[in-house]
Amino acid sequence: MEDQTFIGRQPIMDFKQQIIGYELFFRHSAYAQSAVFEDDFKACANVLVNTLGQMDIKWLLGDKQAFINVSEQMLKSEFLELMPPQRTVLEILRSIPINEAVVERCKALRALGYKIALDNPQLNADSAPLLECADYIKIDIQTVKPAELDKLLYKFNAPSVKIVAEKVETEEQFEVCKNAGFRLFQGYYFSRPETFTAKVINASFDSVLNILNKVSQDADNMDIESGFKRDAALSFKLLRYINSVGFGLSCEIQSINHALTILGRNQLYRWLTLLMVTAGENSTPPALMKTSITRGRLTELLGESYFEKKDRDNLFIVGVFSLLDAILKMPIDQVLEKIQLPEPVTEALLKREGIYGPFLELTEACEDADSTRILELAETLHMDSAKVNECHMSALAWVETLGV
User: Fold this and answer.
1) Could you tell me the end-to-end alpha-carbon distance of the chain, in angstroms, rounded to an integer?
2) Under a CB-based contact definition with an 8 Å cutoff, are residues 316 and 402 in contact?
């Protein structure tokens, strides 16, 4: 098997927890018996050119930024200029020795429209000449005492510089950084649930659950329609959804019953799944919602060639619902007691087992940029890195088109 380079990602968000960009990680893995690349640069270059080089076409990022780690050799290479400048932030690694050539190269790249991010310049005594090139400065908060955060913010504060708190792992750390004055954050604290206790599900979720269970039990349309009629907001969302441009209908659908007929059960099931993560939009962080939906789409795409349509819908639901514990702040087993889902879906969510389990595991490994785990799972599922990376980018693109 050839060497594989997999893309991982981590969202970067503002203080309202809206995602403004993703840091993309390129994890290079090789078996001892296989031919090893001369260096990771070739592997990374290959992925960038083949997967990300067509970002303008394939990845509808909107105003999102792609943060890419740049080594010394990458910085010198011309292939970086294949990336779309308006969407690319080049993150200069601390391992790069700062000299006049590096500073001039960064200035040249900025002149082309690229943005420059510096990685923890406070830890590198030679970083001063690069500060004038910086559009972003990242501070690893795990290396800084909370009391020192405001000093660093003061030191690096400039009108043209955005400072990112990275490795934010808990809600408490998020609040500390926010109070210190950070406005951009990186880390998975929002999707790493702590131990939750039982909690009452709010009315919006309850309405969606009620209808979702009716659909799962194959209730008739009149029964499902009555569930919608008890919640005016849900009825409005359904009609707005089906009358959206995506359906391309020639006439406006004005009744719930007509909408249910047009949608069909599988599409309704998927839509209700999305509603589960957006129903509590006043309390659910946008970044968590978007990560949940991305998981759904990626899990579905990874299993696309393995399953029939109905099973692919289940893969989508497995991915989306895998973060319901964080969204509802309840243990996942207690959440699933309230939803009547097919047994293989429940098995994947509770144990990461069964026919859907490996695809969810691969999605989570991609999210964590866990190259060893990705390689193991991809090989088990007979997928190569090109396929996994293509699915990953396609999932991010699809979620951007939803406007959530």
Assistant:
1) 39
2) no
Look up the pTM and report it. 0.79
Give 145-182 pLDDT, tens digit per residue: 888 898 999 999 888 999 999 999 888 899 999 999 99
Beta-strand ranges (E) seen in 204-262 are none
Q: How many residues are listed for the chain in this entry?
A: 404
- Per the CB < 8 A criterion, the answer to whether 263 and 242 are in contact is yes
User: What sign does the CA torsion over 382, 351, 19, 151 have?
Assistant: negative
Do the Cβ atoms of 368 and 392 come closer than 8 Å?
no
Tell me the pLDDT of the chain averaged across its residues: 82
- Rounded Cα distance, 212 and 51, in Å: 37
Residues 6+ apart with CB under 8 A from 263: 242, 271
Whether the pLDDT of residue 346 is over 50: the answer is yes
* Domains of the chain with bracketed CATH: 4-187 (3.20.20.450), 203-402 (1.10.3210.10)
* Residue 369: other Cβ atoms inside 10 A: 18
Q: Which of 322, 61, 57, 63 is nearest to 192 (CA)?
A: 322
b/e map of 198-231 (b: 16 or more CB within 10 Å)?
eeebeebbebbbbbbbbbbeeeebeebbebbeeb
Q: What angle do CA 337, 205, 290 make, to 5 degrees?
A: 100
